[in-house]
Write a structure and sequence with these properties.
With 147 residues, this protein is α+β, with helices and mostly antiparallel strands. The chain has helices spanning 14-22, 27-30, 114-146; strands at residues 2-10, 34-37, 47-50, 58-60, 63-68, 72-78, 86-97, 100-110. The radius of gyration is 15 Å and the shape is globular.
Length: 147
């Protein structure tokens, strides 16, 4: 198993962070890493387009595993067939105080091709997570200014 875990502190209430994170339709306006089509409901399938540095966009169709409002969102997807290269993606929100949120954003990878595929995309994926985290931070903090 391989893992990526990234974190960022966002100077915005957890409700603001959650609302922006869950507004998939607005992702193309601010998110440099992923665009999502679908509904965040357990059991639903999403269509995710991933933008990794130096590669053409990749489309995955993961299934929502867990939605805990203002706490956690998880989905699982796979490459071609389940068991080759599977990824469980997660966002976890923790309130630090009323105006600050800790975002933990990561993915756990497994499957018989995990070593090979992770060598090819691991670093770019982690960079993508960090780019998204910082763009989310900017979007959330800008939203507070505009209120």
């Amino acid at each position: 198993m391989k893992n990526i875990r990234t974190e960022v502190i966002i100077d915005a209430p957890i409700t603001t962070v959650w609302d922006i994170l869950m507004d998939f339709k607005d992702y193309p306006n601010w998110n440099p890493f992923i665009h999502i089509t679908g509904d965040a409901k357990v059991g639903q399938q999403l269509e995710n387009t991933i933008f990794l540095e130096g590669q053409k966009p990749q489309i995955f169709k993961p299934q929502i595993l867990e939605v805990q409002p203002q706490k956690k969102l998880r989905w699982e997807g796979y490459l071609f067939i389940k068991g080759l290269f599977d990824g469980e993606h997660y966002f976890q929100l923790e309130g630090i105080h009323p105006q600050q949120t800790h975002l933990i954003h990561g993915e756990n990878f497994k499957g018989i091709l995990v070593g090979m595929v992770f060598k090819m995309i691991g670093k770019a994926t982690e960079e993508g997570f960090n780019k998204m985290n910082h763009a989310l931070k900017e979007q959330c903090e800008r939203a507070l200014i505009e209120i």
